[in-house]
Design brief:
The structure holds 2 protein chains of 2 kinds. By secondary structure, chain A is of the alpha/beta class. Chain A has 15 helices and 19 strands. Chain A has 3 domains: about 160 residues, Aconitase, domain 3; about 120 residues, Aconitase, Domain 2 (3-Layer(aba) Sandwich), CATH 3.40.1060.10; about 180 residues, Aconitase, domain 3 (2-Layer Sandwich). Helices cover about 30% and strands about 15% of the residues of chain A. In chain A, helix 6 packs parallel to helix 8 and helix 12 packs across helix 14. Classes of the chains: A alpha/beta, B alpha/beta.
Chain lengths: ~475, ~200
């Protein structure tokens, strides 16, 4: 069992009690909610005649079904409008803060949490979305939960959990050109497998992670769940504190100094004990791209597609299904595969640094005539800042669409969907069958740089070979 | 107590394959519903449309209440719509090689036990059911066995989750609510709850 890790420290200080079953009831420091996974939870609350136990510890925003073309109400889609109205009624009735459009703080829940300083080191954070692992980037424990559990948090500010094991994943050395945080996490998932993290928390460490900005760490932690790990985190350090200082909901003045003392105290100790440790040499990581139907089906952009026989057991069948769905052939090169859609956005890669990198490469170039490109900032704030820097003009000039904040084409739940057998390169997190809204749609995942390079070329392309302007 | 779950008997629906993600189980467009009522209609609906012999539609398995699955079942999105659709379809227990963490938590929260067995045993169960769809199985949470006729397979459950079903307290919200005074005590000790004033 792990000892003296950040996970152990936060876990221990948040235990309310051990239940008769042997499971733990854990206090949740911050509960983030959105329109999709909450209506049934609020309905249960009403049925029980209960109130929200800690209304100040739940914050709502809207992202999943939110259209990104026009956010003028009522929404064009009746179901989306009904869902949004339900959220508005619920937050009003129960006194929950709602980061709506008028607040100027609306955005993807895992983007706005850290951006506003709501997500802080040492907290337990829960949200009815599996990518809550993102918040581990600030040194918190972020748990993705289901709707019944959202109800538990509303009613009692707690959830019921079993203790996880802690697996330290160190990425050492230096990253090569064209290699980004997205490639690092795709490589980790590739090496450890999509089931490798079951029952585990991933602690990301090593020089590469230590040298990353907060936004890059968010990209890494975001996809922990794609490796089967419910949570992933990075120990807080000077990068973390500098990021948090001055944000909307960060502690101010003397509080900030005292907060820093607490934040430092919850980091893993040098002599911490882990259940498992893995080291990856960052210098060996290539720009990664997925070829199949789960995020573990990935290769370096210069590699050839693997034979299904290189897998074992049921994974052979999954690989075969992957090839059939994606209409690709083992042994072929992945680079050069024609694409029709390029998507830059989602809770994985829609932050300012992602947009800046995309704009840097696309500047002076054009989106290929056969490609539709969507650029979807993660929050209203990011959109405003990007526009101040003129990034939107660069994208529009190149022929890309510039949208409003939301989950967009990550998950076919709003107007932005693949059609028929369209093939996309996306900065999002899942290439599951049907994920982008068409049962026959084909999704490749890659970094923002790869998405832009591919949008220009009209096919999957190596960003390391694109110099930008 | 009415919430106790000790054993479940019935026929099985074999669903081979690993890494069946929740996007496949319940496609995202069904998440715009404001209630879980009728969610069973979403169950694997996209792939059923394109697969004429999909196990869910196989008349041999009609009325099954036990589901056999492979490794890492329920991976991906945290949507509770997935276990809700399975339960509302009539499944009362799932036996597989392994389950994704959030899916397992959701299944516990809605009172659907998950059992695991080694891959070779699951393979045996799946092939046996495919050949003998009328087989009546009993999934026993007390003895941790899955049995049929003279045969039996040892299954595993996370002990804490097994106890929740045996004691009938998987529907835990009332207990959590009783502990609210304790919750407040823990909150008061956390620096960030008190603006770091010690």
């Amino acid at each position: 069992m792990s000892e003296r890790t950040l996970y152990d420290k936060i876990w221990d200080s948040h235990i309310v009690t051990r239940l008769e079953s042997g499971q733990y009831q854990l206090f949740i420091g911050l509960h983030l909610i959105h329109e999709v996974t909450t209506p049934q939870a609020f309905a249960a609350l009403k049925e029980h005649g209960s109130k929200v136990a800690f209304p100040g510890r739940t914050v709502a925003t809207a992202d999943h079904i939110t259209p990104t073309l026009s956010q003028i109400r009522p929404f064009k889609d009746d179901q989306a409008e009904a869902m949004m109205s339900a959220l508005e009624q619920n937050v009003d009735e129960f006194g929950v803060r709602f980061l709506n459009w008028d607040s100027g703080m609306q955005g993807i829940v895992h983007v706005v949490g850290p951006e506003l300083g709501l997500s802080q080191p040492g907290m337990t954070i829960a949200c009815g979305d599996s990518h809550t692992s993102t918040h581990g980037a600030v040194g918190s424990l972020g748990f993705g939960i289901g709707t019944t559990e959202v109800g538990f948090v509303l009613e009692t500010q707690t959830i019921v959990l079993n203790r996880l094991k802690v697996h330290r994943v160190a990425v050492d050395g230096e990253l090569g050109p064209g290699v980004f945080a997205k490639d690092v996490i795709l490589r980790i998932i590739h090496d450890l497998g999509i089931k490798g993290g079951l029952g585990n928390a991933y602690e990301y460490a090593g020089e590469v992670i230590g040298n990353m900005t907060m936004e890059e760490r968010m990209t890494v932690c975001n996809m922990s769940i794609e490796g089967g790990a419910r949570i992933g985190y990075v120990n807080p350090d000077e990068t973390t504190y500098a990021y948090l200082e001055g944000r909307e909901f960060s502690p101010k003045g003397g509080d900030f100094d005292r907060a820093k003392v607490y934040w430092k105290s919850i980091a893993s100790e040098p002599d911490a004990v882990y259940d498992r440790e893995t080291v990856i040499d960052g210098g060996t990581i290539e720009p990664m791209v997925t070829w199949g139907i789960n995020p573990g089906h990935s290769i370096g952009i210069s590699e050839k597609l693997p034979s299904p026989d290189s897998f074992t057991g049921e994974d052979v069948k999954t690989a075969e299904l992957g090839y059939a769905h994606m209409a690709l052939k083992p042994g072929d090169a992945i680079a050069g595969t024609k694409i029709e859609v390029a998507f830059l956005g989602s809770c994985t890669n829609s932050r300012l640094s992602d947009l800046r990198e995309g704009a840097r490469i696309i500047k002076g170039n054009k989106v290929h005539s056969k490609v539709k490109m969507l650029v979807v900032p993660g929050s209203q704030r990011i959109k405003a800042q990007a526009e101040e820097e003129g990034l939107h003009e660069i994208f529009l000039e190149a022929g890309a669409e510039w949208r409003a904040a939301g989950c967009s084409m990550c998950l076919g739940m709003n107007e932005d969907k693949l059609v028929g057998t369209e093939r996309s390169i996306s900065t999002s997190n899942r290439n599951f069958i049907g994920r982008q809204g068409s049962p026959h749609g084909r999704t490749h995942l890659g970094s923002p740089a790869m998405v832009v390079a591919s949008a220009i070329e009209g096919c999957l392309a190596n960003p390391a070979e694109m110099t930008g302007d | 107590m009415s919430d106790e779950i000790r054993r479940i008997s019935g026929r099985a629906l074999p669903f081979p394959g690993d890494d069946i993600d929740t996007d496949r189980i319940t496609p995202a467009r069904f998440l715009t519903a404001l209630t879980f009522t009728g969610m069973e209609k979403a169950l694997f609906c996209d792939e059923r449309e394109n697969t004429p012999d999909h196990p869910i539609d196989n008349p041999d398995y009609k009325g099954a209440n036990i589901l056999f699955v492979g490794k890492n079942f329920g991976s991906g999105s945290s949507r509770e719509h997935a276990p809700q659709a399975i339960k509302r379809f009539g499944i009362e227990v799932i036996v597989g090689v392994s389950f994704a963490e959030i899916f397992a938590g959701n299944s516990l929260a809605i009172g659907m036990p998950l059992m695991t067995a080694p891959p070779e045993e699951i393979h045996r169960l799946i092939t046996h059911t495919q050949k003998n769809p009328k087989t009546k199985y009993t999934a026993d949470l007390e003895s941790l066995t899955l049995s049929w006729g003279e045969e039996s397979v040892a299954v595993e459950m996370l002990e804490e989750r097994r106890q929740s079903f045996l004691k009938g307290n998987w529907n835990v919200v009332a207990i959590l609510r009783t502990n609210l005074p304790l919750v407040r005590e823990v909150a008061e000790k956390l620096p960030y709850v008190n603006n770091f004033q010690s």
